[in-house]
Amino acid sequence: MPRNEWATSTDLEWMLRSLDGDTGRKERVLAAAFCRHVDHLMTEARCLKLLDVAKQLSVPQATAPLEPSFLRAALYRIELCADGQGEPDELAEICELTDRLSRSTAGYYYACFDEDWGPFDHDLIATCEAISAVSRACCPRVRLAEVSTHAARAAYRARGGTEQKRMDPVESACQCNLIRDVFPVPPKWATRVELVCQSPTANALAGQMYESRDFDAMPILADALQDAGCADENILSHCRGPGPHVRGCWVVDLVLEKE
């Protein structure tokens, strides 16, 4: 696909293939962003329900000492490890536990389901898919395409989808936008961008957004950069555009001098 189509592409498979070879921080934070986009399927109530069903079905991993907030806590660990603030062994442990829990619970539920239980619980399967996405994001080598797939399957199930292995097209389109927020162009086409218009205000704004994961101040960041002398339209338009913006946003990373 031509380079100039990256900015508008909805070909998720091509975009993910274009990221092959980037195994560092950017890929890890993007994986976390895919998961966070479906974190409404990771609430404490959903996790408690899943653990309860897992225990009823005698899933071995259900005996692990897990807090109801374990999925959202895992996302924080992923992001911290991406920034070198955690131990890789932490992620490996989360990866193994969540993978077994999600696969076993979904598998047992499919195998044991009886119509006397009531309607098939697609919400439960949606949470299992969300757990699988988190698991792939924790792998020593991020399985970004698999994170994408499981997150889109989770969204499909949550919207009432009944077919196995179907992905939600709306979620897949959102993932294309998330990719563009982190990678303005594929790594193989990237050239180093120097920001020569730093200012304390811009740095403080970027740091605050990065830590809070709240990017509502992106237009204000554009104003601060412009006041400091930035005339790069790509940078300014990205800040003032509709988003979405996530941890790993290429402009915020540029201001904070993150690779």
Question: What's the helix and strand layout?
Answer:
Layout: H1 12-18, H2 25-36, H3 44-56, H4 70-82, H5 88-112, H6 122-137, H7 144-158, H8 169-182, H9 200-212, H10 218-227, H11 233-240, H12 250-256
Helix pairs in contact: 2-4, 2-6, 2-7, 2-8, 3-6, 4-5, 5-6, 6-7, 7-8, 9-10, 9-12, 10-11
Properties at a glance:
259 residues, mainly alpha, 12 helices, 0% strand
Summarize model confidence as the mean pLDDT. 87
- The tally of domains stands at 2
* Low-pLDDT segments, ≥5 res: none
Listing every helix as H and every strand as E from the N terminus to the C terminus, the arrangement reads HHHHHHHHHHHH
Helix % is 55-70%
Whole-Å distance between the termini? 26 Å
Structure in words:
With 259 residues, the protein is mainly alpha-helical. The protein folds into two domains: 3-185, no CATH class; 200-256, no CATH class. Helix content is 59%, strand content 0%. The protein has helices at 12-18, 25-36, 44-56, 70-82, 88-112, 122-137, 144-158, 169-182, 200-212, 218-227, 233-240, 250-256. α5 (88-112) runs antiparallel to α6. It starts with 11 loop residues before the first helix and ends with a helix.
